[in-house]
Amino acid sequence: MKNYQVPFDMNGNMCFYSGYSNNPQLIWRDNDYFQAKLKFLYVTAGRSAITFILEDTTSKCKYYMNLGNFETVLHQCELNNGEFYGEFYINKRGNYYSLVLNKPLK
């Protein structure tokens, strides 16, 4: 995991695009490992990316995970009605951020 800050909105939702960096309403947080039980909500498809929208079952905050990282979740986590528990961090690729599973938890 690299040491950089990640943008969140004022409601605690992860922002997937860093092009909003001049927005004074963004909150930049350190990229630390965190544990959460996440629920799959839906998928979005852009020109070059498929993104899974996930919700923390406790805080109700939204997170974004790209297809490659979600494939790891499918292989490593126990899914129960679209929910899974794990330790996560956020990866930056270009101007985009994606949640990454560090390790599954029970």
**Low-pLDDT segments, ≥5 res:** none
Average pLDDT confidence is 92
Strand content: over 45%
Order of helices and strands: EEEEEHEE
Most strands sheet:
5 strands, antiparallel
Indicate the percent of residues in helices. Answer: under 10%
How many E strands? 7
Structural class: mainly beta
How many H/I helical runs? 1
The multimeric state of the shown protein is single chain
Q: Compute the gyration radius: what is it?
A: 13 Å
Gross geometry? globular
Query: Order of strands across the widest beta sheet?
Result: 5-4-3-6-7
- Termini separation: 22 Å
Keywords:
106 residues; mainly beta; two-stranded antiparallel sheet; 1 helix; 7 strands
Q: Explain this structure to me?
A:
With 106 residues, the protein is mainly beta. Helix content is 9%, strand content 49%. The chain has a 5-stranded antiparallel β-sheet with strand order 5-4-3-6-7, covered by helices on one side. A two-stranded antiparallel ribbon has the order 1-2. The chain is globular, with a radius of gyration of 13 Å. The two termini are 22 Å apart.
Topology:
Layout: E1 5-8, E2 27-30, E3 34-45, E4 50-56, E5 62-66, H1 67-76, E6 83-93, E7 96-104
